Amino acid sequence: MIGVSLSRWTMSYFAAALGALLLAELMMATGYGFPGADLRAPETLVLVHVVAIGWLSLLMCGALFQFLPVLVNRPLASNNLPLPALICLLAGLAALLVGFMQLGGNLGSSPTALPIAGLLLGTGFCLVLWNLARTLLSAPEHPLPARFVVVGLWCLGATVTLGIVFTLVFGGATSWAPLLALTGVGLPVHVTAGLGGWLTFTAMGVSYRLLAMFMLSPDLERATGKATLYLGTVALVVAVAGGVLVILAAGNLELVLLAALGSGVVALLLYGADVVQLYRARKRRIIELNSRMAALALASLGASVALLVALAIIGRLTDEIGAVVFLVAFGWLSGLGLSQLYKIVAFLTWLECYGPVLGKAPTPRVQDLVVERRAAKWFLLYFAAVWAGTAALLAGHPSLFKAAAAVMLVGTLGVASQLVRTRRLADVKAPSALPQGAQRPRLLYSLSHQS
Amino acid sequence: MTIEMADLDVRPTLRNGGEPFQEIMEAVGALAPGQGLRLLATFKPVPLFSVLGARGFEHEEREIGGGDWEVLFRPAGKNSDAQSAPSAPGNHAGEWPAPARQLDNRDLDPPEPMVRILAATEEMNHGEVLSALVCREPLFLLPELAKRGHAWRGAFEPDGQGYKILIRIGGADQALEAASGAANAQ
Predict the structure, then answer these.
(1) What is the distance in angstroms between the CA of the first residue and the CA of the last residue of chain A?
(2) CA-CA distance, A255 to A247, in Å (whole number)?
(3) pLDDT by residue (tens digit) across B17-76?
(4) Looking at the partner chain, which of A5, A213, A219 has a beta carbon nearest the beta carbon of B110?
(5) What is the largest CA-CA distance in chain B?
(6) How far is it, in rounded angstroms, from Cα A278 to Cα A128?
(7) Angle between the A202-215 and A335-354 helix axes, to the nearest 10 degrees?
(8) Candidates B115, B139, B152; nearest CB to A4
(9) Alpha-carbon separation of residue A151 from A71, A195, A227, A428, B175 (angstroms)
(10) In chain A, residues 72-101 whose CB comes closer than 8 Å to chain B
(11) Which pLDDT score, from 0 to 100, does residue B84 have?
(12) What is the model's pLDDT at position B94?
């Protein structure tokens, strides 16, 4: 039992991720990509990957480098590897965006950037997976949240593999028939593995622990949690492994995805019940802003599921899938991400700065690093804009959607500025801000105090 | 009456220039009630005799050739020790002096439990034991305890109502190197 120390590069991941989110919102506000362009248009692909890789994946990686060790009570395998991984991922994302623009004819097409993007992103995610997998393997047992992460990491591997196949085919590096087939109809599998498996399933697992930690609820190890894990895993295996097999065998992919959807929806309902239980069983009656805002993100997840099922029933899922993906990405995943960032950045900054002098000198509390009232309005603005944006998509009003995206951008800028203020200790009252022995945190990385 | 002995060979660690203190304390912590420890080392580990003596272990050492030593640590009056252990099985809390201070931090908002525990350790004397109840395993506290040279052990309460950590002030002056060495090795 050695405990957990600070992850050195987590703040760098968070900063890069926030930059990507702001860029994506700027694109949407100016009408770049969906809904102005087709769902499969190169502009939409640019937008989607800035969100999925630049924002959500970097956020998730940064968070896992810090919190996977907490989940399994083992130190991170390497505190150095995250930096080269981040460089590969950012360079790979840039190459990917260039490659998509080449597909759209906006840039010269030679040399084609897509295979290079595949190589760089593959390397970056391999470094991430290697580091996290070794951390997981060093633990003698995996509590429930960690098992969600294991499944999520498998899905990340599948998403990246499919993505690399796409870059090779679109980049003209191969014309092998099975890979052409995967590229032709494999997009829903790629999206399900990425959004459903890697991002949503991992976030669900981590949220079991984080919500319990922040609200002083007992850890849930009850049957519904396990059922969620198993049903969700079945859904993902059916959708991803089953989906790939069906494509290669030229079968009916839609049927396989529907079967996965059935199991997945039950898993999400059970997860919802568990989360409600976590909120109810909390010892902390007055909860902090991050937990209040997480509830809005969870409500967005619930709304996404309801919307998905409703659209499937009335047979309009294919037409309106963009609205569902938007709500999942921005209401659920981004909403949860932003709300937890607000707490995580404050806590890690506090620990980095004041940990060494706790008990030796008067120090501020974690809550002294933030001003919740000021941040709350930016969060509310953000969520209101996301819901308005979803409604605008469903109602087919692209200009309203652009306006909503602009408001999201303003809300995110507000939250991001609060995070920078937290990191800079800007809201800590002067006398105890920096006692002797405390070290002012850097904005973009953490100093480990381990000697 | 024979006592069941667990084996721990720290000679490889020592030959690699490592610091086995943490390893030894973890092995001691993992002993079942009444169980003893057979330790193999490359020197006579005199400092351990008092550390483990304070936790209720008698020792018997002999040189086994090549400069190596075998030390048998046996629980003294093991039955009463085992029964006086106040928390979960495997947690030999009774072998340390009775806690000089007790904290119940289960209902405090995190990270207030950590703040109060560290504040208490700063006020206590060398060798004293602090007992603290917390909501869950205090993972971010442990590196800080190691840096300050305290020893600790802990376990979840048998009734599931929290986690009890016992901290011995200045009890692991060597633990910092061992802990960071172990962390680096992984």
Answers:
(1) 18
(2) 12
(3) 777 777 888 888 888 877 888 898 888 777 677 677 767 788 888 888 777 888 888 887
(4) A213
(5) 55
(6) 30
(7) 50
(8) B139
(9) 14, 13, 14, 40, 36
(10) 73-75, 77
(11) 33
(12) 45
Contacts of B21 (CB under 8 A, 6+ apart): B172, B174, B175, B178
Distance between CA atoms of residues A402 and A34, nearest Å: 10
A108 touches chain B (CB under 8 A): no
The 10 Å CB-count burial string (b at 16+, else e) for A20-36 is bbbbbbbbbbebbbbbb
User: Contact, A20 vs A50, CB < 8 A?
Assistant: yes
Q: Distance (Å, rounded) from C-alpha B182 to C-alpha B145?
A: 15
In this complex, is the C-beta atom of A379 within 8 Å of any C-beta atom belonging to chain B? no
pLDDT for position A108 = 77
Nearest CA in chain A to B141: A3
Give the phi and the psi of residue A365 in degrees, each rounded to 5.
Answer: -85, 165
* Strand pairing category for B101-104 and B57-65: unpaired
Type of residue numbered B28 = V
Q: Do B186 and A3 touch (CB under 8 A)?
A: no
Nearest beta carbon to residue A1 from set B115, B122, B142: B142
| Pick from B107, B118, B183: CB nearest A2 | B183
- Judged by a CB distance cut-off of 8 A, whether residue A380 touches chain B is no
CA distance B129 to B100: 6
A223: number of Cβ within 10 Å = 9
Residue type, B141: L
A365 touching B (Cβ < 8 Å):
yes
* B88, two tokens: 């979960």
One digit per residue, the tens of pLDDT, for chain A of length 451 reads 567 889 999 999 999 999 999 999 999 999 999 998 888 899 999 999 999 999 999 999 999 999 999 999 889 999 999 999 999 999 999 999 999 999 888 777 777 899 999 999 999 999 999 999 999 999 988 999 999 999 999 999 999 999 999 999 988 888 899 999 999 899 999 999 999 999 999 999 999 998 888 888 877 767 899 999 999 999 999 999 999 999 999 999 999 999 999 999 999 999 999 999 999 998 888 889 999 999 999 999 999 999 999 999 999 988 999 999 999 999 999 999 999 999 999 999 999 999 999 989 889 999 999 999 999 999 999 999 999 999 999 999 999 999 999 999 999 999 999 999 999 999 998 777 888 888 889 999 988 654 3
Residue A241 has phi, psi (to 5 degrees) of -65, -45
CB spacing of A351 vs B140 below 8 angstroms: yes
Q: Can you tell me the distance from the alpha carbon of B44 to that of B29, in angstroms, rounded to the nearest whole number?
A: 21
Q: Which two tokens stand for residue A183?
A: 């590229």
Chain A environment of B176 (Cβ under 8 Å): 451
* Residue B152 with chain A: CB contacts under 8 Å: 1
Hey, what domains does chain B have and what are their CATH numbers? 1-84 (3.30.110.40), 88-186 (3.30.110.40)
pLDDT per residue as tens digits for the range B88-113 = 333 344 468 889 999 999 888 888 89
Report how far residue A60's alpha carbon sits from residue A38's, in angstroms, rounded to the nearest whole number. 28
Helices (H), A171-237: 177-185, 187-191, 202-215, 223-237
ipTM for this prediction: 0.86
